[in-house]
Structures are given as C-alpha cells and as structure tokens.
Amino acid sequence: MKKGSFEKALADLENAVEGLERGDLTLEASLRCFEAGVKSLTACQKYLREAENKVELLLKNQDGTMQSVPFEPEDN
Asked: Between residues 41 and 49, which one has the greater pLDDT?
C-alpha cells in the first residue's frame, strides 16, 4: 500500500459527497461524481482491510494463537 493512498481516496470520497450534497450538478455530472465516490469508497475499504490484516498478523503469538490486546488511545 502506497503511503497516502488511503488519505487520497478518503479525500476524493469526501469531495464526491460534498459535490452531491451541494445539489448544483447536472444529472450527468452527479452520476460521474457518484461513480467516483463509489470507486473511492471501494478503495478506502480495501486499504482498511489490508491494514486490519497487518494488525492481525502482528498480534499473532508465535504458536499461531491470537492475543487480544485492548486498544488504548494516547491522551494528547
């Protein structure tokens, strides 16, 4: 996964949603915007699945069993 790819796909998705929410696009432009949004959403989902798989691999014990580690966000 290239660095920044998820962020770009998410920004593209946000732009598509904003364009559709404005309501000032023609039908054809709305369809193109919707199509671009669906493509960006699919890309975001792919990047998130890949990240989840990497985290899963990192949490496996040497014997192959999974270790449950609670997520504790850092206080900033």
From this structure: 41
What CA dihedral angle connects 62, 2, 52 and 50, to 10 degrees?
-90
Q: Which token pair is 70? A: 């609670």
Residues 6+ apart with CB under 8 A from 22: none
Positive or negative CA dihedral for 53, 56, 61, 63?
A: negative
Domains and CATH numbers, the chain: 5-59 (1.10.287)
pTM of the complete model beyond 0.85: no
| Residue 66: strand pairing partners | 60
